[in-house]
């Protein structure tokens, strides 16, 4: 997500020099209004969900009555059956099963676009990804007895504070954009190597280094798809909000982050202001 955000900032800064001030102001107000609207909607949805959960818990608690529920007691200690609560629970369970079924279908369709595990030679330095060469793809069953070890390895892997294999591509992208800005110049600072604006060398220096962040994003997206396949086949306990990384999502998120980078460079706002609501919507 971050490398593509950096790509967007490069073009956002260029547009900032081209667009008039009134257009930048209109775009800024429009974008911030839309972000505020979507954030409020998502917040209200989360609040309604929490309120409904609390209401269901209250209605399902032990309730007493002056007649003792017909059992000869002053106060009944038996749980009162509530049709509304039961219907809501049944509806929520049905919707949850439908979401699980749709996610399963998406995962299985994505597995078909990945190389078969039994024919794939390990090319990654990650031992977790190298352990896939004995597995089939496109199925949720497991017959090797390594599910517990695999889930434990995934949990330890995701619990690391500094995942180096994710940090060094980001650092490389930052360093590349920094060197590009110094050599190209801009914001009143001349080029360090005397490149003139709008020359062929200028555009070559602008576009050519962007291939590295694009490659990093595609490579990391492919790794996330492989990791998602391991989780699904290993019956990893996904929780609410976990993202199943399939091809559509690993392409959609970088595209949206590129737009966030353009907004950051054009309007002078932080890219996180745009990506925050997007990640909130994603779970």
TrEMBL record:
Biological processes annotated in GO: protein ubiquitination
Chain coiled-coil ranges: none
Entry keyword annotation includes Transmembrane helix: yes
Keywords on record: Membrane, Transmembrane, Transmembrane helix
Parts of the chain that traverse the membrane: 18-37, 166-183, 203-222, 250-274
Source taxon at top rank: Eukaryota
GO cellular component: Cul4A-RING E3 ubiquitin ligase complex
PANTHER family in alphabetical order: CEREBLON (PTHR14255), SULFITE EXPORTER TAUE_SAFE FAMILY PROTEIN 5-RELATED (PTHR14255:SF3)
Name the record gives this protein: Uncharacterized protein
């Amino acid at each position: 997500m971050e490398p593509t955000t950096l790509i967007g900032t490069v073009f956002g800064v260029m547009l900032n020099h081209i667009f008039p001030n009134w257009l930048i102001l209109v775009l800024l107000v429009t974008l911030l209004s839309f972000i505020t609207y979507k954030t409020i909607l998502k917040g209200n949805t989360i609040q309604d969900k929490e309120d409904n959960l609390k209401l269901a818990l209250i209605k399902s608690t032990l309730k007493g009555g002056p007649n003792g529920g017909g059992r000869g007691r002053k106060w009944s200690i038996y749980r009162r059956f509530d049709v509304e609560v039961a219907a809501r629970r049944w509806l929520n369970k049905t919707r949850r099963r439908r979401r699980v079924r749709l996610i399963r279908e998406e995962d299985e369709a994505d597995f078909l676009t990945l190389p078969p595990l039994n024919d794939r030679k390990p090319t990654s330095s990650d031992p977790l990804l190298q352990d896939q060469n004995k597995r089939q793809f496109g199925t949720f069953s497991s017959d090797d007895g390594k599910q517990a070890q695999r889930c434990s390895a995934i949990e330890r892997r995701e619990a690391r504070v500094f995942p180096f294999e994710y940090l060094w591509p980001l650092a490389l992208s930052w360093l590349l954009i920094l060197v590009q800005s110094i050599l190209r110049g801009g914001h009143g600072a001349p080029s360090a190597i005397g490149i003139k604006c709008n020359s062929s060398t200028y555009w070559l220096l602008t576009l050519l280094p962007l291939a590295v962040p694009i490659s990093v994003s595609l490579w990391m997206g492919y790794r996330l798809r492989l990791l998602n396949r391991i989780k699904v086949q290993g019956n990893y306990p996904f929780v609410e909000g976990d993202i199943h990384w399939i091809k559509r999502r690993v392409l959609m998120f970088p595209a949206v982050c590129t737009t966030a980078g353009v907004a950051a460079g054009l309007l002078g706002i932080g890219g996180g202001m745009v990506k925050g609501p997007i990640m909130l919507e994603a779970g």
